[in-house]
């Protein structure tokens, strides 16, 4: 992307000098740097500029200006020598002016902020006619920066319409009055343009020219005689007629409205034409500032068209063609001074390729998009396969989980009895001897209290790897004989700081023992639910079923709903199939699927300040302070767990920003099963691998098509942002319906493919 340098000048050359504003930025973006400076008044510079112009015009070389009555003093050799002397004096004054102390901050900033290997467009914005006539290319800045070129522009401008895309570049070439000059070489050069459709008007009548201007053109070209008199430019379209820009105003406005991008006046004394034409907001023009000899005009046109049509920018093509005129300066002094680029500051010049869309180019671009999308999709899906995107995908999963509407309420089938720090102190105050967080006496009293409410199932989510005190024979009997009570143990796991595991309560029979193990991801978030596994042979805990599955299955079995395994080895409870996680499942691409039967846990989306189930503390039940409705509690699942931070494990969950006690995660797991089987609440689902690949490739293809259609960075950025917003919206809507489809991979492929296509097609 080219750097854009804008220099704004306010003042005059003779008396007050100029106030200068420098802006440095990039195309399509606000300026990054803006500073102010000055150029002092320089009356001598204005004088020598006029003297040089007089000497140049007195050379009397055959040129494309209207023949005038000019008196030539001395031989042509003498006149050339005098012109060169004035040239040296003018250059000397010009360099000293640019080196003035007041302008040094501008000079220094340009050299500090710009790199010599980057393309630079320099806009000279001024309405001062003397500054417009200065040979700006002699400023030593352009000598140091070989990829920089200047253009003149006025302080007032408007944005012209964007040109339509066409199969070829359309050129309207006006070959006007050619008396004493040769415009046939101009014609031959235009005829050889690649991918161009050129219409020639040879010495047209005014009506004919006007009619053609109302058509759609990309480039307007004029070769013939022209002049500027009293700041008004005039072209001679045939041997008898001449026209000003004002006399062609409506036709030229129509041409600009239909996308005219460039006007080239390969004729003499064109600054008057330029400023009149610029007032119509044409994007770009190239004119000759002084009378131009035939050979100079033809050489410039040849080199410019070759460079521009071969892919160089308008600015660099203009600079290259201008500098190649130096080889003619032995016969034509100051030939390199003549071409001037005029720029509308609200337009970024198009390249030759951007002026048209060839069928072959379109096909090539489509193939580029297709190949880029396939390549990027393959790379992204390959990277994903090895788990490198899993952290991002799981974070996106959490974000979607947190954005879900909070429309669900507590599960009415659950009641959670919590043991917090106050409950531990309560037991101590009552003289209850504790081995863990829950004493035998407290547990015995709790089970007796719960009995009156007739719960259907009781889960003790507290490790009790010790024997019950013989003094509590009733508790021993209840644990052994009450088939509603389930207890937990712990499978050995280094990741849980329990390498040896934890034994189950001795009093609870093996069929009512359950493991309480969770499987958390590397970021310690519990997104998966472990339903059953095969314990190691040396594990003190030999339970194969998770507590959540045991409690849910016992609760459902009482209602005649059984759990079975399908021939494919999948768990089916009632009519609901719980699909197990595989090694490569949606966002999980590096998961250990061999660690038991795992499913993705679809957390209940609770309203604010609402728990997964009705919650009551241990001390409230034991002291009789709880306001439990016995009718509502009947047939519920009661889960007993510790919430005291000193003794309880806390877990991160995708739907909460803070950790929650493990007993509440267990409750979520139980609710997950019951809600799916009894309420028809959907379990999380995902696509097969091939469908995911197709989904990702579609978005990659979309990114490539966006990059192909939008060339301007701001439009491209907006289009990509809109596509990403649509992608997120689709993924979120589907997630609210329990569908977990890829979000990060298609977003990456969309962006990367767009970047690849921009680099390949626009680069």
Automatic annotation (TrEMBL):
**Signal peptide range in chain numbering:** none
Q: Per the UniProt record, which residue ranges are transmembrane?
A: 684-703, 715-735, 741-759
Where would I find the CHASE2 domain in this sequence?
A: 389-706
Keyword list, A-Z: Membrane, Transmembrane, Transmembrane helix
Q: Which InterPro entries does UniProt cross-reference here?
A: CHASE2, CHAT_dom
Provide the protein name.
Transmembrane sensor domain-containing protein
Species the sequence originates in? Brasilonema octagenarum UFV-OR1
């Amino acid at each position: 992307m080219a750097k854009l340098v804008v220099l704004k000048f306010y003042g005059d050359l003779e008396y007050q000098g100029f106030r200068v504003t420098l802006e440095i930025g990039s195309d399509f973006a606000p300026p990054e740097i803006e500073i102010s400076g000055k150029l002092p008044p320089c009356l001598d510079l204005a004088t020598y500029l006029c003297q040089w112009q007089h000497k140049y015009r007195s050379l009397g070389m055959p040129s494309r200006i209207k023949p005038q009555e000019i008196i030539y003093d001395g031989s042509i050799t003498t006149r050339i020598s005098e012109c060169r002397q004035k040239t040296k004096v003018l250059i000397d004054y010009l360099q000293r002016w640019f080196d003035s102390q007041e302008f040094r901050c501008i000079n220094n900033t340009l050299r500090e902020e710009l790199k010599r290997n980057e393309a630079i467009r320099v806009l000279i914005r001024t309405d001062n006619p003397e500054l417009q006539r200065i040979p700006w290319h002699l400023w030593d800045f352009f000598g140091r920066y070989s990829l920089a070129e200047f253009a003149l522009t006025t302080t007032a401008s408007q944005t012209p319409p964007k040109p339509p895309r066409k199969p070829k570049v359309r050129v309207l070439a006006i070959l006007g009055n050619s008396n004493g000059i040769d415009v046939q070489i101009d014609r031959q050069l235009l005829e050889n343009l690649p991918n161009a459709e050129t219409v020639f008007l040879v010495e047209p009548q005014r009506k004919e020219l006007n009619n053609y201007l109302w058509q759609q053109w990309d480039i307007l070209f004029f070769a013939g005689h022209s002049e500027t008199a009293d700041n008004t430019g005039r072209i001679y379209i045939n041997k008898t007629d001449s026209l000003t820009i004002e006399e062609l105003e409506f036709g030229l406005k129509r041409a600009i409205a239909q996308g005219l991008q460039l006007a080239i006046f390969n004729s003499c004394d064109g600054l008057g034409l330029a400023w009149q034409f610029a007032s119509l907001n044409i994007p770009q023009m190239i004119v000759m500032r002084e009378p131009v000899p035939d050979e100079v005009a033809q050489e410039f046109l040849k080199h410019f068209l070759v460079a521009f049509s071969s892919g160089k920018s308008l600015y660099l093509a203009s600079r290259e063609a201008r500098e190649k005129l130096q080889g003619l300066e032995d016969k034509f002094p100051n030939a390199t001074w003549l071409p001037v680029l005029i720029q509308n500051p609200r337009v970024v010049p198009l390249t030759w390729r951007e002026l048209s869309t060839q069928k072959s180019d379109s096909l090539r671009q489509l193939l580029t998009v297709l190949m880029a999308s396939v390549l990027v999709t393959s790379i992204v899906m390959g990277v994903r396969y090895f788990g490198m995107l899993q952290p991002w995908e799981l974070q996106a999963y959490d974000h979607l989980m947190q954005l879900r509407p909070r429309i669900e309420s507590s599960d009415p089938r659950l009641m959670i009895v919590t043991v917090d720090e106050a409950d531990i102190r309560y037991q101590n105050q009552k003289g209850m001897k504790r081995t863990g967080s829950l004493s035998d006496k407290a547990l015995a009293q709790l089970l007796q209290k719960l009995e009156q409410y007739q719960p259907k199932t009781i889960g003790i989510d507290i490790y009790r790897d010790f024997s019950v005190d013989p003094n509590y024979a009733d508790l021993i009997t209840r644990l052994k004989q009450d088939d509603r009570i389930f207890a937990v143990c712990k499978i050995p796991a280094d990741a849980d700081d329990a390498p040896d595991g934890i034994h189950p309560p001795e009093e609870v029979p093996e069929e009512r023992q359950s493991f309480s193990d969770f499987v958390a991801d590397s970021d310690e978030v519990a997104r998966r639910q472990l339903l059953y596994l095969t314990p190691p042979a040396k594990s003190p805990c030999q339970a194969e079923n998770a507590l959540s599955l045991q409690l849910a299955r016992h609760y459902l079995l009482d209602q005649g709903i059984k759990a079975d395994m399908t021939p494919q080895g999948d768990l089916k409870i009632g009519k609901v199939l719980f699909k197990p996680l595989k090694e490569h499942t949606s966002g999980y691409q590096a998961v250990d699927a061999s660690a038991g039967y795992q499913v993705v846990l679809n957390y209940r989306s609770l309203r604010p300040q609402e728990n997964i189930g009705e919650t009551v503390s241990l001390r409230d039940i034991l002291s009789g302070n709880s306001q439990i409705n016995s009718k509502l509690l009947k047939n519920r699942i009661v889960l007993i767990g510790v919430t005291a931070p000193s003794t309880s494990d806390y877990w991160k969950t995708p739907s909460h920003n803070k950790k929650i006690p493990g007993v509440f995660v267990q409750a979520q797991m139980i609710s997950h099963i019951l809600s799916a089987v009894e309420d028809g609440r959907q379990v999380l689902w995902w696509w097969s691998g091939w469908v995911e690949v197709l989904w990702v490739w579609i978005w990659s293809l979309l990114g490539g098509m966006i990059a192909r259609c939008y060339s301007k960075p701001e439009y491209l950025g907006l289009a990509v942002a809109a596509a990403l917003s649509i992608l997120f919206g689709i993924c979120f809507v589907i997630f609210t319906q329990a569908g977990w489809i890829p979000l990060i991979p298609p977003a990456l492929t969309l962006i990367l493919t767009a970047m690849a296509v921009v680099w390949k097609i626009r680069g």
